[in-house]
Specification:
Length: about 200
């Protein structure tokens, strides 16, 4: 049970508008990101950049789910929204685990990418900022879907940092394995978040 005072109708509407605006910003950024990352991944054959592109696709799906959930109400809608977000975490973890492990075992050398470093650095800043906004708005609304998707966005920021470091190490030190290894960093967080979502006691 929450100890915060009940929200007025005007305050709730304001928070809902803020939540939807944060999701629209996330959605827009990631739509652009999918295109940018696809081009970079093709030109560099980077597993980390390809994985980050998939993460952007999952974030697009998660943002769409939250916009759908915020437009309505009801426990069934909320439960389905959380399940869809949890599924996105699982898909992300499986893809990164398979692709990164395969690349490491095969000794895959990606081309170095200064553009990838710039994009992931800016994306990390944007995602962490959006994640903070979603967490605060979700708590104020007592909306677990928005808070959960905020964690998706936070993980997106973590992945951006991991990819950034992998690309930077490859560029400056010649550590080819840093590219696929960077994609493995996020697997633990994605699995942990998916497990939290699918524990029924956490949402009873």
């Amino acid at each position: 049970m929450s100890d915060q005072a009940p929200l007025s109708d005007s305050r709730r509407r304001s928070l809902l508008r803020r939540g939807m605006a944060l999701e629209i910003l996330t959605l827009s950024w990631n739509v652009v990101g999918v295109v940018v990352l696809a081009l970079l991944a093709i030109t560099t054959s980077s597993v980390a950049l390809a994985g980050f592109g998939l993460d952007s696709l999952i974030e697009i799906g998660a943002s769409t789910v939250v916009l759908w959930e915020l437009s309505g109400s009801g426990e069934e809608r909320r439960r389905r929204a959380l399940t869809l977000i949890g599924g996105a975490f699982v898909a992300l973890a499986l893809y990164l685990l398979i692709q990164s492990t395969t690349a490491l075992l095969a000794g895959h050398h990606a081309s170095r990418s200064g553009q990838g470093i710039v994009w992931t650095a800016v994306t990390a800043i944007v995602m962490f900022s959006l994640a903070v906004g979603k967490a605060r708005t979700g708590r104020a609304l007592e909306n677990p879907v928005l808070m959960t998707e905020g964690r998706v966005t936070f993980i997106d920021g973590l992945l951006a940092v991991a990819v950034l470091l992998g690309l930077a190490f490859d560029l400056t030190l010649g550590w080819w394995w840093a590219d696929p290894a960077a994609a493995l960093v996020i697997v633990y967080y994605a699995i942990r978040e998916a497990a939290d979502i699918f524990r029924p006691d956490d949402h009873s």
